[in-house]
Structure formats: structure tokens, C-alpha cells
Specification:
about 220 residues; alpha+beta; L-fuculose-1-phosphate Aldolase; about 40% helix; globular; metal-binding; lyase; Aldolase_II/adducin_N_sf; metal ion binding; aldehyde-lyase activity
Length: about 220
């Protein structure tokens, strides 16, 4: 088993153990080099991945290695890797609270709540519903990846990416936590207090929490 396979297996188990994915509802990938990625195969359960459950896929030619069928959501993954050279790891799943928000017109993501939301949820994009696995979905995700590392897909779920798998996972964990807070506060009639924009900007630029990640669309 290679180190990249082990990282994907461990990530899949973590997603399921922490209720960030369920059944066959998600897919994950890691960039191998400039031209190829390793992605979970079609129909695989993220919590039970084995070394034979992955497919080497060429980002630009759509050619794959081996007999196994790649995830049907491959167009989203390859689209992001094409547009964002800094993307090294991608997670797609349907966590409960995040998906509830994705299925509602009345709720939205709030980033000005606490330290992790200010940093990891600074840029969130939304796209309309497209059928899973469609090129239309892949194109819409790829386009929005120029604006954000988190893309909420209407009535579907979310796709998250970063320059490492731990950072992508942290984005997803923070997103689910924020969605849960918003929903629980709404249910309890609690009004959440947002951090002022000037304080958020000062935190991102001057707090030394983590280097701010800003992608410049060229």
C-alpha cells in the first residue's frame, strides 16, 4: 500500500467516524502530479476503503488506469485540479447539517462567528442543482473553484479542497460545525452575534493564526 492510498483510506474512515459522510454518498481524491489524481472508485464506501478501491485518473485526457470504474463525480475533481494548481486534495460528501443548509433557501453559511470559521470559511460559493456526475455539474464546480475552496451544491452536498488533506478535512469539519450552530441557534431562538467585518479582516491579516490563503484568479 502506498502512502497516498493510506492517506485516502484513513481520511475516508475519519469522514464516516465523524459523521461527515455516510454509505456511498461521497468521494475523495489526491493529486499525484500535474497531470493525474488518485480518486475513490464508483460505489465505494468511504469508511471501508481498501487499496484496490482507487483509480488513477488523468486530469486532462480522462484516461484511467486499471479495470475499476472511477467515481461518477470525477468531472468535479478533475475540473478543480485543472483550474486550481494549488489544489492537492478534494473531499465531496453530504454531511447532515451542511446538506440541510444546501436544501434550504432560508439558511446560509456564516463565517463571522469564531476563529475557525473566520479562517476556513472565508470564501464559500454556491451553485444550482445539476445531476450528479454530469459534465454540467463538473463545469459549474470548476468555475466556482476560482472563487472559493468550499462549494455548496444546491440539494446535493458540498465539495471542499485545499493544499493538503488535513486542511481540506478541517474546512469540512468547520463548515459542518458552523451549519450545526446556525440551525441549533435558529431552533432555540438564539440570535448569533457576528464578529464585525473590520475585526475579521484584522484577524485574517494580522493575527498570525495561519497564513491567509487567497487565490488570485488570473
Amino acid at each position: 500500500m502506498t502512502s497516498i492510498e493510506k492517506e485516502l483510506i484513513d481520511t475516508g474512515k475519519s469522514l464516516v467516524d465523524n459523521q461527515l459522510a455516510w454509505g456511498t454518498s461521497g468521494n475523495i481524491s489526491l493529486r499525484m502530479n500535474d497531470e493525474s489524481m488518485l480518486i475513490s472508485g464508483s460505489g465505494t464506501k468511504l469508511g471501508e476503503l481498501k487499496k484496490d478501491d482507487f483509480v488513477v485518473f488523468d486530469i486532462y485526457t480522462d484516461k484511467k488506469g486499471g479495470e475499476r470504474k472511477a467515481s461518477k463525480e470525477t468531472p468535479m475533481h478533475s475540473g478543480i485540479y485543472k483550474k486550481r494548481k494549488d489544489a492537492k486534495a478534494i473531499l465531496h460528501s453530504s454531511p447532515f447539517y451542511t446538506t440541510l443548509v444546501a436544501c434550504s433557501n432560508e439558511l446560509s453559511i456564516i463565517s463571522e462567528l469564531f476563529i475557525e470559521t473566520m479562517y476556513y470559511l472565508e470564501n464559500v460559493s454556491y451553485i444550482d442543482y445539476y445531476h450528479p456526475g454530469s459534465q454540467e455539474l463538473g463545469d459549474a464546480v470548476a468555475e466556482q473553484s476560482l472563487n472559493a475552496n468550499i462549494i455548496i451544491m444546491k440539494n446535493h452536498g458540498v465539495i471542499v479542497f485545499d493544499d493538503s488533506m488535513p486542511q481540506a478535512l478541517m474546512r469540512l469539519e468547520t463548515l459542518e460545525m458552523a451549519c450545526r450552530m446556525v440551525l441549533e441557534a435558529k431552533k432555540a431562538g438564539i440570535r448569533l452575534t457576528r464578529i464585525p467585518d473590520k475585526v475579521v479582516e484584522d484577524f485574517l491579516e494580522n493575527s498570525l493564526y495561519k497564513p491567509r490563503k487567497i487565490h488570485k484568479n488570473k
